[in-house]
Every structure is written in structure tokens, then in C-alpha cells.
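User: Could you go from structure to sequence for me? I need the amino acid at each position, not a summary. C-alpha cells:
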């Protein structure tokens, strides 16, 4: 595993606050998510929000499928939900999930021209604008470039960012775009991502 720099909160805000793990994925994402989220402990100390390119009619089934494979509860994000430690929120509609305040999420149709719905970039950029605690951004397997710009925005603010490696990606499009843009601090196999998150947020569990 290549060396990493410590997690940093965004500049000019307190170093305290609820940590957030923001994850984006597309083609091949469910399997990668099951590997990563399924390895997080029940007392995981950060909130998790997942943006997976998936139709809203399939999203409830995916949430249930992940719940069966995780120690943490997985549920579809609803308007006004507040990310909480030890809970995984999954984008659940064909609109974009965003942070509407510094503590709550919601959905928006804009930008309507974005072909990726829900968009990883749109969510990551809202995190860059709104979140007031530490953040880890993670981009997983998927076709295209969605998430690369948003992950770069997080890294530019000093947050720790991860891209899945090519060997474990079903489609090395989104992680490759992020890495090519200089958006990822680390490039890790899917099996190494959860241990890294536990190292950051539950160090006594190592």
C-alpha cells in the first residue's frame, strides 16, 4: 500500500465534527460496495453516503441486498435525512442527491443536462461546499468520468481521497479519470479500502 497523508478537514473550519465517507460508483459498483461496506464494523464512527448509478426502481432492492451483507444499516436517502455515524445512505432516485445544508441531504433535478443520474460529481461538489467535518472521498469502478471533478474538488480542499485500482475495477473508467486528474491521494484495491477507513475512523479496532 502506498504511503498516505493524514486526513485533513477543509480549510478555515473547525477540525471537529462528524466525519463523512462519500462514495461514488457505477458499472461493477454493487460488488465493490459489498466488499467495502461489508467490511466496516458495526461501530464505524463515520457517516457513509453512496452515489451509485442505478435506476430508482432498482435502488430499494440494492439497499436491501447491501443490508444483508453489511453490519451497518443501509437505507435509501430521503429528503431532509441527516447523515449519521454508523449509517449508510444510498441515493434512491433519478434526481441528484446533494447536501442541502451542512447537516442534511435532499434531491434536485439540476443540473438537468448531466447524463449521470444521480451524479457523483454533483454530490461530491455539494460536500465540498457544505460539509463541516472531515471527509474521505472514494471513487469506485464505473464507466465514464463522473466523480473525477468532484473528487478533485475534495482533494483541493485538503480532504483525503481514494480511487479504486485497475486490477479490482470491473470497469476502470471513473477511477482512471480521477487518477489522471490528480484527484486521488491513494489508489487502492477494493479489499484495502475498508481497512484504510477503519484505520482513519476506528483506529482501536485495528
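Assistant: Here is the amino acid at each position, in order:
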Amino acid at each position: 500500500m502506498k504511503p498516505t497523508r493524514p486526513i485533513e478537514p477543509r480549510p478555515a473550519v473547525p477540525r471537529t465534527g462528524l466525519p463523512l465517507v462519500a462514495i461514488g460508483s457505477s458499472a461493477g459498483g454493487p460488488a465493490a460496495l459489498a466488499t467495502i461496506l461489508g467490511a466496516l464494523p458495526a461501530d464505524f464512527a463515520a457517516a457513509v453516503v453512496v452515489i451509485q448509478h442505478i435506476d430508482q426502481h432498482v435502488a430499494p432492492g440494492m439497499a436491501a441486498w447491501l443490508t444483508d451483507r453489511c453490519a451497518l444499516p443501509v437505507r435509501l436517502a430521503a429528503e431532509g435525512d441527516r447523515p449519521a455515524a454508523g449509517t449508510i445512505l444510498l441515493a434512491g432516485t433519478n434526481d441528484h442527491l446533494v447536501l442541502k445544508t451542512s447537516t442534511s441531504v435532499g434531491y434536485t433535478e439540476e443540473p438537468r443536462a448531466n447524463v449521470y443520474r444521480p451524479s457523483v460529481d454533483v454530490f461530491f461538489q455539494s460536500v465540498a461546499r457544505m460539509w463541516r467535518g472531515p471527509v474521505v472521498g472514494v471513487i469506485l469502478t464505473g464507466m465514464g468520468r463522473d466523480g473525477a471533478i468532484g473528487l478533485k474538488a475534495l482533494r483541493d480542499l485538503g480532504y483525503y481521497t481514494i480511487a479504486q485500482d485497475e486490477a479490482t475495477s470491473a470497469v476502470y473508467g471513473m477511477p482512471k479519470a480521477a487518477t489522471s486528474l490528480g484527484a486521488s491521494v491513494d489508489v487502492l484495491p477494493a479489499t484495502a479500502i475498508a481497512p484504510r477507513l477503519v484505520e482513519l475512523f476506528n483506529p482501536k479496532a485495528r
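One structural detail worth keeping in mind: Residues 190-201 form the longest helix (12 residues).
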